[in-house]
Amino acid sequence: MSAKIIDGKAIAAKLRAEYHVRVDVLKAKHGITPGLAVILVGDSAASRSYVSGKIKACREAGIHSELIELPATASEVELLDRIESLNTDPAIHGILVQLPLPAHIGVSSVIEAISVEKDVDGFHLYNMGGLVTGSTVFSPCTPYGVQKILEHENIPVEGRNVVVVGASNIVGKPTALMLMQQDATVVICHKKTRDLGHFTLLADILVVAAGVPNLIVPQIVRTGAVVIDVGFNRLPDGRIVGDVDFEGVKEKASYITPVPGGVGPMTVTMLLHNTIVSAERFATAITSGFRR
Ligand code: GUN
């Protein structure tokens, strides 16, 4: 068997074209341009590159974006003040604080300061908690991107065995909860899991977000499994690879996402989606007289 290689870039492009239409409708019907504020603290090259990608994607989608750059020495209070003014800024519908933050700033107090209605990253405790009951205001972007890929490929989730490798707050745990909400039988494996293959061999759908190149080899993948690789690792020779031995596993899986070009483009696409949804809610609130 040779797997279908899922083209995340193509799925993202199709969705972004649909989202552009929604932006045009918001502008024409309501005079509202969706707005995203991105806060970058410090000068990490990796964070700067992610942030540039987000700003460029906004521009291409017709979304207004504001990049707020603070020095690595900025205090937590300074950052909280910025967030507070963005929370009440009517031109801004989404607020994203790029992580990681410098060590002297408390991540949870910063994330919890973002208005839940503008938490387009889906990282606020309210949105995290909402994953348990299926009632988020916004779902986190990477897990949401995984869900959209499965939907796009018409891969059913209900009643299937899903194994998530990686238990991070940003990817592993929310992905598991979102797929459980769709009635999958979900197992989460993590760095302390003994005999990983014992679990991964059960997976109809295997989602891997461990940050370990070549963690998943063909011997621990069930024949015909759907393999979604969320890993993003830079090798010493500069190559970008996921967590899955792509060449080996593609001969055993039924579907597989490549790295790069699989889940990656979907994360930013879901950020655009959440920002547009936030602006649409804002427009509805104005129309129904709840906001001025
Ligand atoms: N750092 C790495 N990934 C992300 C992300 O999805 N959102 C934010 N805010 N920071 C990140």
Write structural notes for this entry:
There is one protein chain. The protein is α/β, with parallel strands linked by helices and 292 residues long. It has helices at 8-30, 45-61, 76-87, 107-113, 125-133, 141-152, 172-181, 196-200, 246-249, 264-287, and strands spanning 4-5, 35-41, 64-70, 94-97, 161-165, 185-189, 205-208, 226-229, 233-234, 240-241, 255-256. Helices cover 42% and strands 15% of the residues. It has a six-stranded parallel beta sheet. Strands 3-2-4 form a three-stranded parallel beta sheet, sandwiched between helices. A two-stranded antiparallel ribbon has the order 9-10. It starts with a strand and ends in a 5-residue tail after the last helix. The mean pLDDT is 97. It is globular, with a radius of gyration of 19 Å. Helix 1 (8-30) packs parallel to helix 10 (264-287) and helix 6 packs across helix 7 (172-181). The chain is built from ten helices and eleven strands. It has two domains: 31-121, Leucine Dehydrogenase, chain A, domain 1 (Rossmann fold); 141-264, NAD(P)-binding Rossmann-like Domain (Rossmann fold, 3-Layer(aba) Sandwich). 43% of the residues are buried. Guanine binds at residues 96-99, 121, 141.
The strand count comes to 11
Under the CATH scheme, which architecture of the largest domain would be assigned? 3-Layer(aba) Sandwich
CATH fold topology of the largest domain: Rossmann fold
How far apart, in Å, are the first and last alpha carbons? 58 Å
How would you describe the shape? globular
CATH class call of the largest domain: Alpha Beta
Estimated helix fraction = 40-55%
